[in-house]
Each structure stands twice: as C-alpha cells, then as structure tokens.
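Q: Mind making up any chain with structure tokens?
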Amino acid sequence: MWRVIATDKDGREIARKEMDAGEFTIGRDQDRQLVLASPSVSRRHCRVRVEPTGVSIIDDGSANGIVINGGRIPANTMTAIPPGTRVEIAEFRLLIEQVGMAPAPMAPPPMAAPPMAAPPMMPQPMPGMMPPQPLPQMPSAVIPGGAMPPSGMPGGAGPTDLVRLIAEGGQYSGRVFDLPGLPEITVGRGVGNDLVLDDPSMSRKHSKMRRIGGGRIEVEDLNSANGTYVNGRKITTAQAGPGDTVRFGELMFRLDGSGGSSGAKAAQASSNLMGPPISAKTKNAFLGLAGVTGLVWLIWIIKLILPSAPPKGVVEQAIAAKTQEAENQVRIAKEAFNKQEWQKAKDAAEAALEIDPVSLEAVRLRAQSSRAAEDEGKYKQGSAELDKGTSDGFSSAVRIFDAMSPDSSYRQEFADKLRTKLVTAGEDYFKGKKYRDCAEVLCYAFRVAPANQKPGTSIVKILRDAEKRARLSTPCTVK
C-alpha cells in the first residue's frame, strides 16, 4: 500500500490518501479528490496514479506546473515519484510513503571491530558514554521518470542556467519561485500565465521575462497598471541578474541564479547527475549534526586519554549548554530588534547561528534586522532629498521610496511624509505657473499614497488643469 501526504508551506499536513492501486485528482476545485485551496493551484491541476509497483504523477496542463526535485516536469507526461522525491505544487508539498514496508537490516557501524579479532587500541564504550554514531547517508539521486530537461535557451541559457525569484515581503514573503525552463515566462494575475501571482496590484498579463544566460533575465512590462521595476526604477524593458530586485506592482522579489560560464555549467551538470540540489536548510542541518557529532567524538577521545572517566551525562550537559547559549543569543537579538537596535540584533542572531546553524528564529531575526537597517538608511536619505524642496529632490525621494521593502514600517512612514510634501509643492508650483513641475509632483503624490489616503478631488482638479496647461499628452493615473 502507498500513502500520499499533502503539506502546506509550514509543513502542516492538510490531507492524505492511502491505496494499493488506482488514481485520484488534485486541484483547486471542490470536486477534486484532494483539494489544495490556493489561487496558485489550477482548478484541475494534476492526477496521481498508484500501482503496486510505485506512484506516478501527471500534470493536466496547469498554469504553475509541478516541480520535482527542483525541475518542472512536462505537461501530460506520466512521471514516477518514488519515496523521497521532492514534489512541489505551488506552495504545497507531496510526500510519498510505502506503508507496511519491512525495515531494511541495520548496517554495521563504520568502525565496528571484526568478530574474530578486535584491534588492540579500540576500547569499549565506558559507562554513561554515548557511542559515536555514523553520519547519516545522503539520499541517492531520484530522476523523475519520463521528465526531460529543458532544451537550450537563447543567449546561452539552458538546463544548467537556474533562475529563481525569492519573494521579499507581501503575501508571498519567503517563497521561492523556480522559473520554468521556457525561453519566455509570462507573469500576471490571470491563470493563463506561466507564473501566476494572485495579488490586487498585478495586472492579468503584467510582465514577460526572457532568459539571457548566466542566471540573468530580461524583464518587459506589458503595459501593466501598476508598473514593473528593476532595482527600484520603473522600466519598459531592462535586464536583471543575481542579487537585483524585480517588483511587479506591489510584489517585490530578489533574483537568484547561476550559470553562464562553462565551469559553472559543468559543475551544475555534475550535480544533476548526483541528485537534486541540496537546500540551504538541509546544508545547515547537516553542518549542525556534523558539529554535534564532532563534539561527541572529542569528548570520547578525552575519556580515553584521561586516567579517570568524567561523570555520567557529560555529553548531554555539553550539548545542553550549547543549546542554552544559542537560545540566549536569540533572546538578545529579539530584545535589540524590539528596541530598533538593528546592528546589535543582527550580531546576536549571527552569534546564535554560529552555535546552532539550524535555528530558524535566528535566521529570521538576522534577515529582518538587515532589511530594517537598510530601510532606515533609505528613509534618512530620502528625507534629506525631500527637504531640498526641488524637482530633482522630489524625484530622488520617490526613487528611494520605490527601493524600500514593501512591508517596512519606514516605507509606510515615508509614504505619509512624501504625500504631504508633494501635494504642498504641487500647489505652490501651480500658483507659480510651473505647470509641468506641478503635474509631475502631484502624480508622484497619487502613486506613493496608500489606496485609502489618496489626495482629494480638489488636488485632482489642480492636477488635470496643470496637465492641460502644460499640454501633456499622457494623463496621470489617480486610482
């Protein structure tokens, strides 16, 4: 019998199916046998087929597809998913288990002595001593059956050219979107796009991305209502690479990618043969386990050297002390963060990670402190530009505002200050008959103001009058 478990992005189980043979459907519609309630999931997303010999999955032409071991599989193609395979459907995960499977025989420890003659220098474990355990074996590579790698892309992009978007803030904060292996990827709110982002600030067809190799993309705005931005600048067409920010409407992403050079491509091809890429979380967990194992070995060697054995539980006490030390650093980071002492919070979080590399709370605090420190600096810089009271100063302040984190409290506070200053400047420009400057700063004011704090009808009238007198062909959007 086989068991298929569906979990959400936090690892919580939301549904499961157990069967010996048969097929069940997955999608957003309530008539599906396994319902995944999310706008990123198509109404009829896929099917899972169970046979006595194993489990397979078929993508029924969904908008956002199915990602297996880091690669998107082709539509309408049966792909095997053995136990241990990483299956991603939007923000959900599928786990495959074989129920009733007999446990495999335990392998002898790597340093176990032969039964006939033990090495003379290998001592037996002392009382209260936890014997050293072998490091866990990494899972073998799982290649989805029938899944072919994407063909080479123009400009040198190919199957080794990995490109992903990491959401920063907003409803998708922290989610990683691996871009499918297509020459062009459309982005928008409509379900027909290659990447569907269900957010009110998105147009139905918002933008288009093209792979150009080396982990880089070309981004084109498709006349969207709220615009497309690269590194805070509104664009029609622009290129972006690893580390750059791309914003669609109000959704901010950081670009991550690799590839381009022959050496990088060869390394990636080798890693594909060996198995799926190891995530940062898995690496940290492995390093943490290796550190604890090294500590156990060190104490065991000390036991051999010292003439008398240390008290019982010394290993447990050492581990508990390290854990407590990491928790203390996390507590210091939280207190500093609440006091807006960003650098102190970041240093304490990094100290906690040096002790416990898999502390999720420390990872979160370090990231939040870094972003807050950057936004604080941008807030001060933008305020200085705003205080100049010139047209160039206003334009610079708006560009700095666009580069701030969408969910930052500094950005919200700066939006209020911007709107007030820009409206006042627009009224002064109108009185001074500087109609083009008036139209520009009032349009900025409408763009930066939250939906429930837009300037009133009197300001709209001044804006339209200034546009008419300046003979501007394209009116400002005031929604």
About this structure: The mean pLDDT is 78. The CA atoms of residues 59 and 76 lie 5 Å apart.
